[in-house]
Specification:
Length: 165
């Protein structure tokens, strides 16, 4: 028995209903029946494509590591200790590491793109400030030089000749 995500179902069976279909992952030596479908899970990052995934019971295919996901209406980290105690009650040899809420997982997933976006915005503001300073400096120089030229064009007044010469 297994659960197959939507991407794998579309990859293996196209538009056909995947429930009840059989498949093999070892070249036909053993066959697994798809019990039902499940949603695609972006567990490798929000920006990554979803791979074909097959979920089987742990007793049917023991893995080196497993992930336990708990849905709760309460604040997730407030019940973490209780969930770990229940896990140890079932099997005291099971490790419980990296206990995180979905918000923490999401924040880690978008941390690098967020940093890139913030740095891009900072450099854009810096470029805007430099450009504004340059434009205002050029405008000030131009108006100052235009004022000097217009002053030299006035009729001669005693003492002004030494500045316009």
């Amino acid at each position: 028995m297994a659960l197959v995500n939507r991407t794998a179902a579309q990859h293996f069976w196209g538009t056909q209903d995947a429930v009840g279909k059989r498949f093999s992952t070892d070249g036909g030596r053993t066959w697994i029946q798809n019990h039902r479908g499940c949603w695609d899970i972006k567990q490798y990052g929000l920006d990554k494509d979803v791979p074909d995934e097959i979920y089987v019971p742990l007793a049917q295919s023991p893995l080196l590591d497993g992930i336990l996901v708990v849905k709760t209406a309460a604040e997730p980290m407030s019940i973490a200790r209780s969930v770990i105690e229940m896990l140890y009650a079932i099997d005291p040899n099971q490790p419980a590491a990296r206990v995180r809420s979905l918000e923490q997982v999401r924040a880690e997933s978008v941390a690098a793109p967020r940093l890139t976006t913030n740095l891009l915005g900072l450099f854009a503001l810096l470029a805007l400030a430099i450009a504004a300073t340059g434009i205002s400096g050029a405008m000030a120089w131009r108006s100052a030089s235009a004022g000097m030229r217009s002053e030299c064009a006035w009729p001669s007044v005693r003492g002004r000749e030494k500045f316009c010469a």
